[in-house]
């Protein structure tokens, strides 16, 4: 490969990628290469006003350290959080000691690096102040060569209470910048405490969104390390995808380095290697002589790859990933190295005028992608407790349910590297919000500079991930201004507040992106039509729809929405009883109990959930049944919306429901609960997001049978439609061969309702659809002609036949003589995962699925413990 290099000066702060690490400092002087020492051990913490030091874990936070040292009870259990509000109102201290060899002090540069401090921190080293921080979303650095000494060094951090820090700011500004109208929602703590979010660069979900506990955390939430280097170090490696096709990839490689003044005009060698998706080198190792210059500079290289393997979203092809390594050598010795990994693909957000308004569709490698996705909130109230295994489990569940995009919502955190690496590997596109949500923010120079540093750091950290598909300035701030009465709320300050809005989202963030990542689309807010239309328009931009649930509109109103892209909509449910037992006692098992109310953050809360439930269902007979029916209700609601959105392709090109995961045991909109158990909605999503979907729909006097295909080629198929009574008698049957058109939604069959039903009682029949491709069933669906509460469901008995396939995997075959609607499978005591659940078991038909046990269990025990509940059992 041919690699011509040129030098150009880069100004401004940049992300330092620490990829040449060692855990000891003894070898530093000899190699003159950069070394990195983790300082994550030996920490202790205490309340600032006391002297009772206790061991601390870094990364972590005050709450997890208090819990680990048994100074508080589990904050997520029952109503313990109400007793722990004092934690957020308190200053905390952390300290550790570490040993520095004398040889290390001879290094030219010694820097303390904090990958994340939450949030207001004063850092001292050997009793000398070296750093003050006020943003948990930034990396912080301090030159500590003057403060370090040979031998033992003391590093001390005092975290000032975020609540105390911002307490006077609303009065100082003269107005409250929070845009919401629910005091229990974002920004309020405990008994209507001060609104934090607009005034601090801190994760708002951690202190009282309407699905999270009211915690205000502090602590060292990312690693701490000491960097030592001499002449030069590499600070970034970035791959620019100039032109990509299956025949060739034109790439630009940017290698950023920083050199000391004493290294000026010294010679060095830059070596670049490319590793293909198969782990083998691509092309020849390249070496280029470099004359070092002081301060920060960027070397650029042009690279061409022949016949590259492209990266595709899940469902459209493989996720080929290329790795690049840059190494800086001097006299044959390594000074530093940096690596990055990316996938080669073209990506466009197509916004073109058409007969419906203005399109909103992602095009990847020339393929228009119907986004089947979900919103992502942080998976833990204390983010350092989310293990790689848990990240992988959640994201794999998204892919397993045929999703191709997750939206990292602007009220949480910028996720860690493992999250984005996993999205790259699984083919999950990422809609990435900047961390601004439901608030208006200051526009003073100090705040703007802080945001600029944050955005630059995060964009440079994430821009090589092929999964990142769009940057979005904020969550719901634009629609708040236009439709929530915010200008009136701001009164005389409204021009100033709006000017600050434009400063952040029209000027600052686009400027950072133009400098650091101009290849990706940017949108100032979600939802937004970029001021061409009202935010949330059905003809332009994306839409958040909350009239169902938030506005108590009937579920049928989902089908009145035909936006260009639905980026947020949702419906609540409770976790199942096994999960509820994790945070309650028996006495709490009533939706009106104090603890169940405490684990319900929506202002409307449990009464609204019950109101919706009673519109469609009878009153559940007990607490456990209420939990179960709430999940069926949620799943049916989102199914109704998602299938409607898919049927309206290409007018609508995206469906992302709210939300995949949950951050604690709570009634929420998630499809997977905090404890990792799939709710009914997650199982339903696997079906309504199927790559080829059959979707029956009543329209006027007819039932139309749509087939929606995400396949890129025409697919021959066979559709069978059958009407049965609940005892299994076939009343109508029709089979039709289809040539399913690619990337389309189309009604292939249209049958009058009267022809289907004849004189049958609509309360006693079920319409089933089965779509086969190549003899394999690829999609099934059922349709009922009456509300669940009006159906004359028979008492059904589900029989199960178990078979063990290996140590922990079993097959179970189910059958019922009569219809069993919304069958939920669980075990009385043991736990595990059913590959399918919450399905309609048609009379007389067999259904076989797998079960993965979490612990050793026998077939006899499975027979004894299996509980197969259906809808009729709940009333």
UniProtKB/TrEMBL annotation:
Please tell me whether the keyword Mitochondrion is annotated for this protein.
Answer: no
Per UniProt, residues of the Beta-mannosidase Ig-fold domain are 793-873
Residue ranges occupied by any Beta-mannosidase-like galactose-binding domain in the UniProt entry: 43-222
The record, for Gene3D superfamilies, names: Galactose-binding domain-like, Glycosidases, Immunoglobulins
Going by the UniProt record, its keywords in alphabetical order are: Glycoprotein, Glycosidase, Hydrolase, Lysosome, Secreted, Signal
User: Any signal peptide, and if so, which residues?
Assistant: 1-26
Which reaction is catalysed here?
Answer: Hydrolysis of terminal, non-reducing beta-D-mannose residues in beta-D-mannosides
- InterPro entries reported for this sequence: Beta-gal/glucu_dom_sf (IPR036156), Beta-mannosidase-like_N2 (IPR054593), Beta-mannosidase_GH2 (IPR050887), Beta-mannosidase_Ig (IPR041625), Galactose-bd-like_sf (IPR008979), GH (IPR017853), Ig-like_fold (IPR013783), Ig-like_GH2 (IPR006102)
Primary place of residence? other
In this record, what's one Pfam family?
Answer: Ig_mannosidase
Location within or outside the cell = Lysosome; Secreted
Annotated Gene Ontology cellular components are: extracellular region; lysosome
What top-level branch of life does the organism fall under? Bacteria
* GO molecular function list: beta-mannosidase activity
Family classification: Belongs to the glycosyl hydrolase 2 family. Beta-mannosidase B subfamily.
Q: How does it assemble?
A: Homodimer.
Instruction: Report the protein name in the record.
Output: Beta-mannosidase B
